[in-house]
Amino acid sequence: MKRGYPEQNKKPSRHEHDIRQKKSLGQVFLNTDWPVNRVVEQAQDLGLKRVLEIGPGNGILTEALAKAGIQVTAVEKDDRFAARLQDLITTGQLTNVTLVNLDILDFDLDAWIKSSNGQPCGVLGNIPYNISTPIIMWVLPHLANIRASIFMVQLEFAQRIVAIPDNKDYGSLSVYCQLRAYCEFNFKVEKTCFTPVPKVDSAVITLRPRPDQALPPKLLQYTETICRIAFTQRRKKLRNAVKPFMQGRDDKDSPIDLNRRAETLSPNDFLKLAAFLFADKI
């Protein structure tokens, strides 16, 4: 997303509606077009021909994607917005869009990817703050089979995903994501760009598959186990976290100095440590 869009050039959304926010679904809606334009351009730059949009809501991004010639499968849990979007599709006001009225976590992503028949596809959307982690974890195992995921998330959540070691935002989420994806922070979206105005700013991030690092599922599983335990004791030395898994192994044989703390290890360091600790199970 290299093109510049000054935030002062905001213009009102064409998608005003009288449907009230459901706090239980963490709904906030864009009231300006510039972030949408940048997301669409990112999708075009990545060569996406087909996208799965999570929670289209009032359809501002849905319409922009469709007008750009991208085939959209819009998955909307809220019956009110689903009915509104379906009416727009039925009356021909919204084309190039298929609507699915379903909770995104119940959607069969694997089947959707297979139905793309090799077309460059991706997953994107303005993700509700309260289910950002479950959605990221839902997408990550499928990332190798799509071109990219573009998400608008809470700013602090985005910072955690792209954080590097020895940074206060660095944690198990950073490691989980970076082991499976190239994680890019694209741009910040001020909270005033949403209605109702949330308490926090947002940001757009892109996750792309790492063909250079196709890791065995069991190695990933054990790496994430060690990572999760280590970060619950991030102020302590690693030897405290891994002690239950040493099983007679000598500290000096470890590929990672066990006097270090979790926050100093790179994702690849965690991989090496897991390979050492679980060599007999991988």
How would you briefly describe this protein structure?
This protein is 35% helix and 17% strand. With 282 residues, it is an alpha/beta fold.
How would you describe the overall organization of this protein?
- With 282 residues, this protein is an alpha/beta fold.
- The chain has a seven-stranded mixed beta sheet.
- The chain is elongated and about 70 Å long.
- The protein folds into two domains: 192 residues, Rossmann fold (3-Layer(aba) Sandwich); 61 residues, Helicase, Ruva Protein, domain 3 (Orthogonal Bundle).
- The relative contact order is 0.11.
- Helix 1 crosses helix 2.
- The chain has ten helices and nine strands.
- The two termini are 39 Å apart.
- The N terminus is likely disordered.
